[in-house]
């Protein structure tokens, strides 16, 4: 009997689906329109569609599906759209204004402080309640927990119908006892409430970030629980007759997956679900082709997400945010810029041309969609210049080239340029917007962008790669097969992963105490992996530590070796810290005894490895393939340009610009002076013609 694993990535416009046959390794991809009113509808249609496509002569049903992995934006969209209501907050007596005080930093620097207005807090002050009791920074109890006051607080929330509540007490990272008792009181007095406590969400110091992260978890928990429960029920109903539940997992922001049954208890971990899967899928594709360190660029309809992969692993951060909410959970370090296919071109009050971050979205979408759009977008500029075909998804979505032309001509008249220069200008601005995001993820982190090839994927990702090579000095760009489905493919490449952290601030590290903490964290990780069904011998524990020079306010994270903690282990971690600090900031104090090193957080990631899908090789063929047709395309000037169908290309094929390479989910314009060469894994590698060889 066939065994199929399915990855489903739900985006704002399309739901992308990939199926991998575990016996043959055959990969099947497809797309279906997303259904924002109920994303589960698009999800289930995508599953059915990919199974029909994978069936061929042999019928494949849900009975043949061994696992479904999902990347979702449900939590992300709720935060970005500020759909947070009736959320309550319980904190330590005397600290009720922690959300009001927040941090001193002002967006865009101090020059903005004259005009900046602090946004509404995630919980308004009238829905904040405090409970007596106090711990010190070591976790020792200074004042006992006030049970009577806790009961009053729980009843206050119950009487007002506030059912999502976050709890964050001072120094609970060192001792969770008071928070656990508060949760017990809430469960007893207000059983309808959904409660998140900070020692479960983020057992790490810094009260403001820990409070907001806990509140974000509480805010999205009801929505995620309903959504995941709905999907799980529909999958179970569709798979009725298999005799057991269908394994269903959800992608997390940290680059791992977790079963649906577990992820509903920690929904904040899914806030960068889709972009994280894309970075991991691109990392595997690039490493297979011999490029372990790359920049990844995921271009969609509204935005572009970029990340850096070093030695096969995307960079992680705990300093991320979703919208205006800081979220200190471990997540893949991704920078997002409002530069996608739907980004709108507009004229500033000064009369200059701008592009984005406003997007036409999927509805009404660009002018060329013919759905009532009224503003010129990046996609319209590509259509006007002939760089994309007059349809999307192999003809499933026809495009109105006349509408795009009329919009470009009207915009050109307003700024006094030719339509061609206006369209080219829109694309140039969009390319520079993307390049700025790439510089943020590289130059600002001490990396030289010229050292990294780039993997471009997503529906709009490959469209501007030739200009990005010129702007950034990239050595090459790799465009994978089916670039629009790389995020869904990435869902099938990731291990089960959970992260655990404990704050342990000290300048004089006690190896015995650190060993005890690592042991406790690894015990928590082992319990989670046991629940996920991994045998003990398959468990993997990855240690890391956050360190800083004494007197600094923020830390640098470095990996820590496995094995017993001794002086050699400590010396190795310190050496890695000095090296990483110098790489990030350009200086370090390795040999300066005046600057001591302070340990801040100890971390463990519990990993349950999976078998990743193998990427097949393609047969070699002609190096100079014939185009399927010609079309008028404008690069520097209009000209009859060869159009190639990617599915017809074999390994070793080399396409010289000007040309256009089209496929089901995306298009690659090859500018004059560039070449695109197909490697043995089906990737197109784009370089400047002078750089080949």
Automatic annotation (TrEMBL):
Task: Name the InterPro entries on file.
Answer: ACX-like_C, ATPase_NBD, Hydant_A_N, Hydantoinase_A, Oxoprolinase-like
Q: Where is the Hydantoinase/oxoprolinase N-terminal domain?
A: 5-189
Sequence ranges assigned to domain Hydantoinase A/oxoprolinase in this UniProt record: 210-499
Can you give the residue ranges of the Acetophenone carboxylase-like C-terminal domain? Answer: 515-686
Q: What is this protein called?
A: Hydantoinase/oxoprolinase family protein
Q: What lineage is on file?
A: Bacteria, Bacillati, Actinomycetota, Actinomycetes, Streptosporangiales
């Amino acid at each position: 009997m066939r065994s199929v694993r399915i990855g489903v990535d739900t985006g704002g416009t399309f739901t992308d689906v990939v199926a991998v046959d575990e016996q043959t390794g055959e990969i099947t991809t497809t797309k279906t329109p997303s259904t924002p009113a109920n994303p589960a509808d698009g999800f289930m249609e995508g599953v059915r569609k990919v199974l029909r496509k994978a069936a061929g002569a042999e019928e494949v049903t849900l009975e043949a599906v061994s696992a479904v992995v999902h990347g979702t934006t449900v939590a992300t969209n709720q935060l970005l759209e500020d759909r947070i209501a009736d959320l309550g907050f319980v904190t330590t007596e005397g600290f009720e204004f922690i959300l009001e005080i927040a941090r001193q930093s002002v967006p865009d620097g101090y020059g903005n402080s004259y005009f900046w207005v602090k946004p509404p807090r995630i919980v308004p002050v009238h829905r904040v309640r405090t409970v007596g009791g106090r711990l010190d920074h070591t976790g020792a109890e200074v004042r006992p927990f006030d049970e009577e006051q806790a009961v009053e607080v729980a009843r206050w929330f119950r009487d007002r119908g506030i059912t999502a509540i976050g709890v964050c007490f001072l120094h609970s990272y060192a001792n969770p006892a008071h928070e656990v008792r508060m949760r017990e009181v809430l469960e007893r007095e207000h059983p309808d409430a959904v409660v998140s406590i900070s020692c479960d969400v983020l057992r790490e110091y810094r009260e403001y970030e820990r409070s907001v992260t806990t509140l974000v978890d509480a805010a999205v928990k009801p929505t995620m629980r309903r959504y995941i429960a709905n999907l799980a029920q529909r999958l179970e109903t569709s798979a009725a007759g298999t005799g057991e539940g269908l394994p269903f997992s959800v992608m997390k922001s940290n680059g791992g997956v977790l079963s649906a049954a577990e992820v509903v208890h920690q929904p904040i971990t899914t806030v960068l679900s889709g972009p994280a899967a894309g970075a991991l899928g691109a990392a595997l594709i690039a490493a297979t082709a011999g490029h372990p360190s790359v920049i990844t660029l995921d271009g969609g309809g509204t935005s572009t997400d970029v990340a850096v992969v070093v030695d096969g692993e995307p960079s992680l951060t705990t300093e991320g945010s979703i919208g205006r909410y800081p979220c200190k959970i471990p997540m893949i370090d991704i920078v997002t810029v409002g530069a996608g296919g739907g980004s709108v071109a507009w004229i500033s009050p000064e009369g200059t041309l701008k592009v984005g971050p406003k997007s036409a979205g999927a509805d009404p979408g660009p002018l060329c969609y013919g759905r009532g759009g009224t503003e010129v977008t990046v996609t319209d500029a590509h259509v006007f210049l002939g760089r994309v075909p007059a349809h999307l998804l192999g003809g499933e979505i026809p495009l109105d080239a006349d509408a795009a032309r009329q919009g470009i001509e009207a915009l050109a008249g307003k700024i006094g340029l030719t339509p061609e220069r206006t369209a080219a200008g829109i694309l140039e601005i969009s390319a520079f917007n993307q390049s700025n995001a790439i510089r943020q993820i590289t130059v600002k982190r001490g990396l030289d962008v010229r050292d990294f090839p780039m993997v471009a994927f997503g529906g709009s990702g490959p469209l501007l790669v030739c200009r990005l090579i010129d702007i950034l000095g990239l050595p090459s760009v790799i465009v994978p097969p089916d670039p629009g489905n790389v995020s869904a493919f990435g869902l099938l490449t990731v291990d089960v992963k959970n992260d655990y952290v404990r704050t342990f601030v000290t300048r004089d590290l006690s190896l015995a105490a650190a060993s005890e903490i690592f042991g406790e964290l690894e015990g928590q990780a082992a319990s989670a992996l046991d629940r996920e069904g991994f045998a003990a011998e398959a468990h993997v524990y990855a240690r890391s530590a956050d360190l800083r020079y004494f007197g600094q306010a923020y830390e640098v994270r470095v990996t820590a070796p496995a094995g017993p903690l001794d002086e050699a282990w400590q010396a190795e971690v310190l050496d890695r810290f000095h090296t990483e600090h110098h790489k990030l900031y350009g200086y370090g104090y390795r040999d300066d005894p005046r600057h001591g090193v302070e340990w801040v957080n100890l971390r463990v990631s519990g990993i349950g490895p999976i078998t990743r899908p193998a990427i097949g090789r393609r047969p070699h063929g002609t190096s100079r393939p014939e185009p399927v047709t010609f079309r008028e395309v404008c690069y520097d000037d209009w000209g009859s340009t060869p159009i190639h169908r990617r599915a017809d290309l074999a390994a070793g094929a080399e396409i010289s610009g000007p040309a256009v390479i089209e496929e089901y989910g995306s298009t690659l314009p090859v500018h004059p002076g560039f070449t695109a060469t197909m490697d043995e894994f089906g990737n197109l590698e784009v370089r400047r013609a002078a750089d080949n060889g």
